[in-house]
Amino acid sequence: MKNTLRVIAAVAALALATPAFAQGGGRGGGGMQMSPEQRMARQKEMLFAGITLSSDQAAKVDTIMVQGMKKQAEARQAAMSGGGGGPAMMEAMRKMNGEQMEALKAVLTDEQKKKFDENVAAMPQRRGGR
């Protein structure tokens, strides 16, 4: 009986702790707390989980990801300074993300592309805002 209660208590604690951790511990969202380098490392970790990149591939991936981050930052800055944003900016970001994903896949072998596609499909997608 005591073991059953301990298991239930442990499961309840995990169930309560997991959403708080996923949301950045209640500090306003985990993604916004990260530096650009941390965000890139996290994205790279999720996209290339289970994929071993050669040093040449890794260098190309880093270059593509840094360029993509710069383009997105420039687009956000332009939208903010021009008072724009909204649906047009979201569409531009989707287009940039799609182009980046295609550029990343171009670096990979056919076998690596399959795993990459699985990783992309498994990533949590932000839809409809927060």
TrEMBL record:
Record keywords: Signal
Cleaved signal peptide residues: 1-22
Record protein name field: Periplasmic heavy metal sensor
Species for this entry: Gemmatimonas phototrophica
